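Tokens help. Our protein:
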Amino acid sequence: MLQARDITKRYEGPSGAVGALEGVSLAVEPGEFVGVQGPSGCGKTTLLLACGGLLAPDEGEVLVGGQDPYAMGPNDRAGFRAEKLGFVFQQFHLVPYLSVLDNILSPSLARGSSNGRRRAEELIAHFGLADRARHKPAELSTGERQRTALARALLNDPGLLLADEPTGNLDGDSARSVLEYLAEFAAGGGAVLLVTHDDRAAAYAQRTIHLVDGRVRE
């Protein structure tokens, strides 16, 4: 489902280029839940963004379902992400003036799905958000916001979920619930790549890759 081959990414700093990733390779198969751990600044989020078609690497190749998103134009790449990938972030990134239902529906705009509303309602029921469907994000608990973000990520039935510290702002019960949903997705044949610094979150993964200074340390 996901192959990253020799990914290198550098950022320009005041004193020259700073390496975020140096020759990182990984693969995630359907049905597999893979964790990426490492200290702050080791390149975890950069790796996730590169794997998700959001940040082009300077060197190396990313394939999602055998396709290279960086070989596509911007519009095609956006449509590809909407169809093939789901993203879950620590800060949720919900649209503040949209209801729970409309936030969950938002990825269907890029895909033009005809059954988006029915799928959104199924996810709202699955994540226990039925009594919050018309509420705005400011009216939700932190756990409800993350469940809304997870439902949004699943709207288009992606094959791959990319999660960046999805439990970082959650209490223990809410964090456990989100991680169980991710494990459920993988058990159903989906692929999950989880970036986290939390050992308890990484314990849900079937295997863990450790990043140190932008390089893989098994």
